[in-house]
Design a protein that fits this description.
Number of domains of chain A: 1
Number of helices of chain A: 13
Number of strands of chain B: 14
Radius of gyration of chain A: 20 Å
Strand order of the largest sheet of chain B: 6-7-8-3-9-10
CATH architecture of the largest domain in chain B: 3-Layer(aba) Sandwich
Number of helices of chain B: 11
Order of helices and strands of chain B: EEEHEEHEHHHEHEHEEHEHEEHEH
Strand content of chain B: 25-35%
Shape of chain A: elongated
Number of strands of chain A: 0
CATH topology of the largest domain in chain B: Rossmann fold
CATH superfamily of the largest domain in chain B: P-loop containing nucleotide triphosphate hydrolases
Distance between the termini of chain A: 32 Å
Strand content of chain A: under 5%
Helix content of chain A: over 70%
Largest interface: A-B, 25 and 26 residues
Shape of chain B: elongated
Oligomer: heterodimer
Chain lengths: 268, 300
């Protein structure tokens, strides 16, 4: 690998170093804090009775059905909403920061005035954001496994790896959406708004649509359903779920790479 | 100009942003080894033209390129042969000057650390400081260092001395002359008339997206208005003086004539030859006068 390719990825990675560390610390703190309360819930019959009093829709929407079990506790507190949503936001923010935001501020101009194809510049930044996302996810996994061992959750390691990999791929999909929009138009507010908006909408569709018999079939439109519809914390994940997230990511990135060659570069 | 000698070629360049026409049909040729001044006030289309040359903007009409390469189609190959200083400096603040130079070295290849250190010393630039901590002038020096750090056949400079102190402006002109001496072509965009006057061989003057004049510095000076004063020892020929075609606002006060000449001085000299003239003062026009003259004379 030559110096130019390393620089196209390494430069943006260095720029994201601090943000990546903060995202890692934030997610690690969330997981550690959440898992630390598990011993208080473990085997609590009172809590199960309280949940049984809630309307079925609320129990379903917030994933409270198996709250007293380790997998149910993790789903309700971390992996049904918070962790995937934070990873989606991290991916969109990091991708935007290295693409649309850099271009709109004029900082990309000097780089694009070098003998480099602008597609290579955008791809380098997309890969860098993906690497940052992978680093965050690996740290997340390490903290999760450590916390699991510390409080004796007893979740299968393979299932945890699958769940966090699905979170990372869901983030990659939304990060790729950010790259695609940045390729079409370098407007940071547009990239952030659409990227995070689609993420939140997907979450709402996957968690609330099943409550209505009319809307329930449409939940499959949501990438969140593709990722977590198979209960990855308690059973093996089908390969198609990974592919369903990875393939559109590649397509969206490609759209961004094609689009960026067909427009003017924004000035400062 | 021979085709082989032409480095930058711009033919009928038009650039529109919606209804706004930033560049309205520019034709320019820049010869190999010349310093070409690209002069005009803010908003005249200089930076837009340069950004088209770099392939950052796509022309609405016309063509622009260098070395026979089209800026849009062959952008990478074209940019391999040029370096650039942007007018609006937006540098990555988190890096030091040293890190930025190294980063560009990796991106371009042909990086010589000794040359980097030599240029930094010449520009009195501390490369170990973060760019966010540098003054405007020092940030400009970083951009200049990057432009002169690599061997380039064409150096494109957009308002390169903004924020530089006079000593550094002089050093910059020396660097431009040295680059030309090694065979490089310099495309120097500026609104600083004195800078272009001192550095450029030829000049194009832009106004509202159009070239309103193009030629050597001497030619443009020749087109400028000249202020004259003549002291007659006999009675001034008032009627004949006022009848001269290129005489603007002649004022005859006793034996002294003051006026502005908008054309050749030859008819005035012929008229004065038949009179007794005690002394005569002709102020040499500078490019600034030529420049303002063109702006006064052309409709927007």
């Amino acid at each position: 690998m030559n110096g130019r390719i390393l620089e196209l990825v390494g430069g943006p990675l260095r720029a994201m170093r601090r943000a990546t560390i903060w995202w890692c610390l934030g997610l690690a703190a969330l997981i550690a804090a959440t898992i630390s309360i598990w011993p208080a819930f473990k085997g609590s019959s009172g809590l199960s009775q309280a949940i049984d009093q809630l309307p079925t829709g609320v129990v379903q929407a917030f994933g409270l059905a198996d709250f007293g079990t380790p997998a149910g506790f993790l789903r309700a507190n971390l992996y049904d909403f918070f962790v995937p949503l934070l990873i989606v936001i991290a991916a969109v923010v990091l991708a935007n920061g290295q693409t649309a935001s850099e271009e709109a501020s004029g900082r990309l101009e000097l780089y694009l005035a070098q003998p480099i194809d602008r597609r290579a510049v955008l791809l380098g930044r997309a890969i860098a954001a993906l690497v940052a996302l992978a680093v965050i996810s690996v740290l997340l996994l390490i903290v999760q496994l450590g916390a699991d061992a510390a409080v004796g959750l007893g979740i299968d390691t393979g299932y945890l790896v699958s769940t966090i990999a699905l979170c990372a791929l869901l983030g990659a999909l939304h990060g790729s959406l950010a790259v695609a929009i940045a390729g079409v138009r370098a407007r940071p507010s547009l990239v952030l708004g659409v990227g995070i908006g689609v993420g939140v909408a997907g979450c709402v569709v996957a968690s609330l649509f099943p409550l209505s018999s009319v809307l329930a079939p449409w939940r499959h439109l949501s990438p969140w359903d593709w990722a977590f519809g198979g209960n990855s914390l308690e059973q093996a994940t089908d390969l198609w779920r990974y592919a369903a997230l990875a393939v559109p990511s590649v397509i969206l990135t490609t759209i961004g790479l094609v689009a960026v060659t067909r427009r003017d570069i924004s000035g400062a | 100009m021979d085709r082989a000698d032409t480095v930058v070629q711009i033919d009928g360049l038009v650039k529109r942003y919606g209804k706004v026409e930033a560049v309205r049909g520019i034709d320019i040729k820049v010869a190999r080894g010349e310093v070409f001044g690209f002069l005009g006030p803010n908003g005249s289309g200089k930076s837009t033209t340069i950004r088209c040359l770099l392939g950052l903007l796509r022309p609405t009409a016309g063509t622009i390129g260098a070395f026979g390469l089209d800026a849009t189609r062959d952008g990478v190959a074209l940019r391999r042969r040029l370096t650039y200083v942007p007018g609006e400096l937006r540098l990555p603040d988190r890096l030091t000057g040293m890190e930025l130079a190294t980063s560009f070295g990796h991106l371009r290849g042909g990086f010589d650390p000794a040359r980097r250190d030599q240029l930094a010393e010449r520009l009195r630039l501390d490369l170990h400081r973060h760019l966010r901590d540098l003054s405007t002038g020092n940030r400009r020096k970083v951009a200049l260092l990057l432009a002169f750090l690599f061997d380039a056949e064409l150096i494109v400079l957009d308002e390169p001395t903004n924020g530089l102190d006079p000593l550094m402006q002089r050093e910059f002109l020396v660097m431009v002359r040295e680059a030309r001496a090694t065979g490089a072509t310099v495309f120097l965009s500026s609104h600083s008339l004195s800078e272009v006057q001192r550095a450029a061989d030829r000049v194009a003057i832009l106004r509202a997206g159009k070239v309103v004049a193009q030629g050597t510095v001497a030619e443009l000076r020749g087109r400028a208005r000249q202020r004259i004063e003549v002291w007659f020892e006999d009675e001034p020929p008032a009627a004949e003086l006022k009848a001269l075609a290129d005489m603007v606002d002649p004022v005859i006060d006793d034996h002294r004539l003051t006026a502005t000449l908008s054309g050749s001085i030859q008819p005035l000299l012929e008229l004065l030859a038949s009179h007794r003239v005690g002394s005569m003062l002709v102020e040499e026009p500078d490019l600034e006068e030529a420049f303002l003259d063109l702006y006064d004379g052309e409709p927007a």
